Amino acid sequence: MALPTPSRTARALITGASQGIGEAIARQLGALGHNLILVARRREVLEKIAAEIEAAHGVDVEVYPCDLSEQADVDELLGRLAEVEVNIMVNSAGIATFGPFAEQDWGHEVAQYQLNATAVFRLTRLAVDQMVPRGEGAICNVGSAAGNVPIPNNATYVGTKAGVNTFTEALHYELKKTGVHCTLLAPGPVREATIPEAEKSIVDKVVPDFLWTTYESCAEETLEALSANRRRVVPGPLSKGMDFISTYAPSGLLSPLMGWFYSKMS
């Protein structure tokens, strides 16, 4: 099994492509010869990344600046994609908030839900409608190991990621005989390979460097899993440890502990 073969007419679409996991996956797909569509809010950042990928790999890279937390922007993007052959889709865009749900800015929480969950849901439907009739395609939705367990002070984020986790894994089984790959990326903490001492968070300082997953290694492991049509990929030792603990530890013990830790991040 493999990813769809790069072609002149097809495009790989990556949301959240202006930074982090989305950017790293976009760069690696470009290196594999795929033409790209990069989606994020910041046009200037997308255009810089697009120019670098085009220069390095000779592929075509289009940028679609939009805010996927806004329904009108998603409507417009879906309309533009109706006539585009999307053979790979990576839904990586997402945001998080920390602190008690009742104390969060309501508008920002709604935007978080729309971005993390609703936009993923709608874009995945477009991919399925295109790919299943062709009998080929690949979908990767970025959930989170945090979606395995209820975490106080992170309620909206874990709620959306729990939905993405189970939705994507269910879809994996539905699509198994269609020729369309569907893989959930459920990372824990991911970061740049090196971080200046002054910019390190408390987590960076506590967790040894060798346990971290970099954006580049996360992207590589993700594309390998998507190529093999694995149901779920959890990259890196720290993420794997978190995933195991959050899957099997009793929620009654784990949730208050994680909630206390997350309260320190608000």
Note down, in words, how this protein is organized.
By secondary structure, the chain is α/β, with parallel strands linked by helices. 49% of the residues lie in helices and 15% in strands. The longest helix has 29 residues. A seven-stranded parallel sheet has the order 3-2-1-4-5-6-9, sandwiched between helices. Strands 7-8 form a two-stranded parallel sheet. It contains nine helices and nine strands.
What structural class is derived from the secondary structure elements? Answer: alpha/beta
Query: CATH homologous superfamily - what is it?
Result: NAD(P)-binding Rossmann-like Domain
The low-confidence runs, each spanning 5 or more residues with pLDDT under 50, are none
Order of helices and strands: EHEHEHEHEHEEHEHEHH
* Rg, Å, rounded: 18 Å
EC number: 1.1.1.298, 1.1.1.381
Protein name: NADP-dependent 3-hydroxy acid dehydrogenase YdfG
Keywords: Oxidoreductase
InterPro entries: KR_dom, NAD(P)-bd_dom_sf, Sc_DH/Rdtase_CS, SDR_fam
